[in-house]
Amino acid sequence: MITRFFPFLCVFALLSFNLLFADTVTNSKTNEVIENVKTSENEQGIIVEYQDGTRRGFKKEAVTIQKKKLLG
């Protein structure tokens, strides 16, 4: 019974994981566009997390964030 639903669960898990990484960040100094990332903000600035787990920090005034509305 579970083997019948296993492929469906795998596809659903992959799609759900990719939906977490939906923001687009534009660096205003270099015009670099970073797509499909997860962003968070703290007192020091903006943290951009890539799908591979790599994180980069930016000053708040150095980037613009375009948030994609997630399902749900």
Low-confidence stretches: 10-19
What spatial order of strands do you see in the largest sheet?
4-3-2-1-5
Q: Which structural category do the helix and sheet elements fall into?
A: alpha+beta
Residue share in helix: 25-40%
**Tally of distinct domains:** 1
User: How much strand content do the residues show?
Assistant: 35-45%
The CATH topology name reads SH3 type barrels
- The second-level CATH architecture is Roll
Keywords: Signal
Signal peptide: 1-22
Brief synopsis:
This protein has one helix and five strands, in the order H-E-E-E-E-E. The chain is α+β, with helices and mostly antiparallel strands and 72 residues long. Strands 4-3-2-1-5 form a five-stranded antiparallel sheet, with no helix packed on it.
Structure explained in plain terms:
With 72 residues, this protein is of the alpha+beta class. It has a single domain, classed as SH3 type barrels (Roll). It has 1 helix and 5 strands; from the N terminus they run αβββββ. It has a 5-stranded antiparallel beta sheet, with no helix packed on it. 6% of the residues are buried. About 14% of the residues have low confidence. Keywords: Signal.
